[in-house]
Amino acid sequence: MATKLIKNAVGRMVPDKINGQKVTPYKGVGKYRPTGRKFAPKIASCADYPLDGNKLVPTLKKALIKAGLKDGMTISTHHHFRNGDLVANMIFKIAHEMGIKDLVWFPSASFPCQEGMIEYMKAGTIHHIEGSMNGPLGKFASQGKMKGVGVLRSHGGRYQAVQDGEVQIDIAVIAAPTADPFGNANGVNGSSACGLLGFALADSQYADKVIVVTDNLVPFPCIPWQIHGNYIDYVVKIDQVGIPEKIVSGTTQITKSPDRLHIAELTAQFCEEAELIKDGFSFQAGAGGTALSIGIYFGEIMRRKGIKAAFARGGSNKYLVDMLEEGLVGYILDGQTFDLDGVRSMRDNPRHVNTSPFTSYNYHGKGNFAGILDIVILGATEVDVNFNANVVTHSDGYLLHGIGGWQNCLFGKNVILPIPLFRDRIPVIRDEVTTICGPGELIDIIVTERGIAINPLRKDLIKKMKNSKLPIKTIQELKEEAERICGKPKAIEFEEKIIAAIKWVDGTVIDVVKKVKE
Amino acid sequence: MATKLIKNAVGRMVPDKINGQKVTPYKGVGKYRPTGRKFAPKIASCADYPLDGNKLVPTLKKALIKAGLKDGMTISTHHHFRNGDLVANMIFKIAHEMGIKDLVWFPSASFPCQEGMIEYMKAGTIHHIEGSMNGPLGKFASQGKMKGVGVLRSHGGRYQAVQDGEVQIDIAVIAAPTADPFGNANGVNGSSACGLLGFALADSQYADKVIVVTDNLVPFPCIPWQIHGNYIDYVVKIDQVGIPEKIVSGTTQITKSPDRLHIAELTAQFCEEAELIKDGFSFQAGAGGTALSIGIYFGEIMRRKGIKAAFARGGSNKYLVDMLEEGLVGYILDGQTFDLDGVRSMRDNPRHVNTSPFTSYNYHGKGNFAGILDIVILGATEVDVNFNANVVTHSDGYLLHGIGGWQNCLFGKNVILPIPLFRDRIPVIRDEVTTICGPGELIDIIVTERGIAINPLRKDLIKKMKNSKLPIKTIQELKEEAERICGKPKAIEFEEKIIAAIKWVDGTVIDVVKKVKE
Question: Which of B34, B46, B223 sits opposite A351 (nearest CB)?
Fold first, then answer.
């Protein structure tokens, strides 16, 4: 049957099928209720695994063959090595050499270091990518060159999709900085240490076959066992799983841009005046330059007021680790470590806790902790006058970013987007965003260098800030100010071809990305 | 259809149905291969849980009502509080007062402190117990007074049964020494600290509704989160979940019996002479008086030889913790802490690792670590001349013990049963055991105060010990020696009524227990 387009709850036309699979249009926050049961993996038996626990296989190729690699399979990887990953490319190089076709690559995110996948997509080895497509892979998709439709999910949405059986992983390959022959693995030890392996948790739990690849094989037991060997089929030792300096940059920098610093300061002042920073509060600041600066301002406010945060949500870096060690935050609940201080702290400090998309973000669980956070600082490429926001496409229409945990974090109590009013003389606040990634009702405050807009739904905040000296404006005022300076942005020209779908946290389709007319 | 009796692979007649549910007779070690899929719990949605993470309900009764408590449900509890548990009784008292009938109680083990359940069984509130029945509850069952048939499983078998959907838990109640309002819970903190909550892992993952009950409610995040709040429906704060001095006795004592000490010494000597104690080896000693003494002998041998163990498997106590702190063992992989030193060590020492039946024992996983252990010390109530052993019934026929992890541990590389040749002048080594809990092919060495028998299957060990001065004998010789002293044991008189089934680690039925003729 032909694909039908249906208008969803944010007014976007989305297809009823993607890559031949039936999908549900977005129905609104909390409106779609799942009725089925979780995906049920096959029951294994210890009788089929070596009794002495030694699951070593000599090469990745042999492991892939043992796992039954064949045309059309879904192969998953994780992105804890970020732009230093070496393993994803290896997998598809092997598949390509074996003449395998039409694989679905299901990474937790993809990075520019995986640009080589374009060759495998052109050759037919990879049919399409289900997952974030940062940089060159996104551009390739936006040019309409990918065979299938890309599917972008948040970190929590990826867990949800695997748990619910929307994506069935045939073979998961988990690159691990340290592992034992039984398959227990962690990210805190070894020369490729990346901190944790939470993005691979769903893959380990639900994939049919699971391969652990490591460059640091240790005797059983590999402790901590962030990934349990009880889920693992094969273990492979290779020379190198990642390039350490690209895994942890060690160069996370506070912004030096006066505009960005101003935005950071306004954000912190807003939070203080609105009394969001109080003893026992919690926050997620993020790792970008502006966000880092906001975290530092938060630290100053806490010291001045003599209060502490119950916990902070990471992505962690040395600044957040300093705050933990100073006692300003009780715990770091961390999804990924961005530098070596983060890795060290997670390894050594029991208050620096490794989390997974299951604990933090999965919307199809019995709650998750995203909603517990008091202050959540996020970014956006565009925001519209209804506070809907975009994080995946640029204002030129190209798909250049993944969703990350962004959608999941929108459930925090006070969601703040500190963003510049324009980028490269293109307004960031617009009548309509190119792609809706998150509905405006979940976004509370927009902070720009020229003013702060509070979502009209947040009457409590508007009342509280009534007498503030901060530049509180309406979002329309901010939009008009941007347009006065930069002019009204030109509409992007798209073709009809859908090149990617954006899933909401519950698996429904909130928007699509179309091929850019070049 | 009527229940049929079928002879299984160890020659025992077992039924094809238990409590109306079809079962598979034991087929031999590793012979039964599961073909289905794991149990698939319903997909939940965060939309149905409080966004701020607060799942508190005022009373256990209200939580049970919210969870939909009704006739015929299966209700699970864990036994980390051992004989100090207060919560299981509360649940069935409430159910009894509400007039609920025919519940199945599915504890990970039951203890004498739960003797009160007899009243609820008599009243029809509880239909039967699926789980270990120690002491009075076992006696009640053995007298044929329980309405349904009891089902005894090992710790690993319990995980397997839940994972595979053989037992579907309607409501799990997880008593926790510490928890937060989101349902994250641990056993290392609080006045009822029991170390860990691993026996409740399967319950949290697979039960339809899960209630956490705690007497130490802390603000989110409860770290470590041994049980994830993402699996929890309701949280209840009560005054007391357990009696601390009965949870951890603090009085684990080395045996003072000269016979037992002799057995311990012989066991250690055997292990040394057979070169089982070598650098990087692993062992599980257990917590009984004899086992404790064996552990201490192991420590002496390691110190003398200047070697260390890669890891020891707990049940932990101060003696094992001392060995960890001394550096004699690299890690303790612990299933339950038996004293306050164990609790403290698990809380503070990252090398003291909490495990669950999933990681350690589940036979329907992709391996488990029971098979990795070099030396496993276990007990038995009876052993037969084919090395088959019994741990659940006494030689008077009464069901008085649970299986614990015993069956699971049989997969270790060298399984040793240090046992007295007779107890109360009744021989322990016999022509046939009353109840077969483990097949003889997995049991390697029997050590008694009057001699050591090596399983004829272990030609390697027999060869290695050929010139030993230790009293190596055949198991027939040991049996005859016991009978010379005590006389041939009298056969027990049973009625035909099956009162309990003994499951093997793969869910098949290895034996049954019948009603004792009184």
Answer: B223
Give a yes or no: residue A376 inside a domain: yes
User: Which phi-psi region, left, alpha or beta, contains residue B387 (left: φ > 0; alpha: ψ -120 to 50)?
Assistant: left
The answer to the question of residue B328 being in a domain is: yes
Residue B418 and residue B325 share a domain: yes
Partner-chain contact A230 B366, CB within 8 Å: yes
| Token pair of A456 as six digits | 């009209």
* Structural domain that includes position B328: 258-492
Residue B440, both tokens: 């003889």
B239 and B285 in a single domain? The answer is: no
A345 is a domain residue? yes
Q: Which residues contact A89 (CB under 8 A, 6 or more apart)?
A: A113, A114, A116, A117
Reported as a pLDDT band with limits 50, 70 and 90, residue A395 is: confident
Please tell me the number of Cα atoms within 13 Å of A306 on its side-chain side. Answer: 0
- Band (pLDDT 50/70/90 cuts) for residue A253 is confident
Are residues B51 and A230, on separate chains, in Cβ contact within 8 Å?
no
Closest CB to B43 among A37, A350, A353:
A37
A274 and A198 share one domain: no
- One domain for residues A262 and A407: yes
Other C-beta atoms lying within 10 Å of the C-beta of residue A394: 20
Calculate the alpha carbon distances from B209 to B31, B41, B68 in Å. 34, 10, 9
Query: Are A309 and A178 found together in one domain?
Result: no
The reply to whether A262 and A228 lie within a common domain is no
Contact A312, A321 (CB under 8 A): no
* ipTM score for this prediction: 0.96
Whether chain B has a CB inside 8 Å of the CB on A163: the answer is: yes
Cβ neighbours of B230 in A, within 8 Å:
358-359, 362, 365-368
DSSP for B129-149, please give it.
Answer: EBS---THHHHHHHTT-SSS-
**Residue B289: what pLDDT?**
81
The one-letter amino acid code at A332 reads I
Beta strands in B43-82 (DSSP E): 74-77
Select the residue of B43, B280, B365 nearest A219 (Cβ to Cβ): B280
Q: Tell whether the model's pLDDT for residue A130 goes beyond 60.
A: yes
Amino acid at A30: G
Cα of A25 to nearest chain B Cα, Å: 17
Q: Which helix (H) or strand (E) holds A209?
A: strand A209-214
Closest CA to A401 of A389, A414, A386, A412: A389
Task: Give the A:B interface size as CB pairs under 8 Å.
Answer: 197
- Of B247, B276, B306, the position where a domain reaches its end is B247
Same domain for B263 and B200, yes or no, is: no
Phi (first) and psi of residue B42, to 5 degrees: -60, 145
Q: With a cut of 70, list the residues of chain B below it in pLDDT.
A: 1, 249-252
If one counts the domains in chain B, the total is: 2
Which pTM was predicted?
A: 0.97
Chain B residue numbers with beta carbons less than 8 Å from the beta carbon of A231 are 365-366
CB A3 within 8 A of CB A497: no
Q: Pairing between strand A282-284 and A375-377?
A: parallel
Check which CATH number belongs to the domain holding A211 and give it: 3.40.1080.10
> In this structure, what DSSP letter does residue B372 have?
G
Residue A223 inside a domain? The answer is: yes
Q: Which residue among A363, A364, A371 sits closest to B53, beta carbon to beta carbon?
A: A371
Scanning B279-298 for CB atoms below 8 A from A yields 280
Three-state SS at B422: strand
Going by the DSSP 8-state scheme, the letter that residue B68 receives in this structure is: T
Per-residue model confidence (pLDDT) at position A314: 87
- Please indicate, yes or no, whether residues A193 and A225 belong to a single structural domain of this protein: yes
Two tokens, residue B144: 């044929």
- Say if the Cβ atoms of A34 and B53 lie within 8 Å: no
Q: Residue A489 in contact with residue A427, Cβ under 8 Å?
A: yes
Decide if pLDDT at A485 tops 90.
Answer: yes
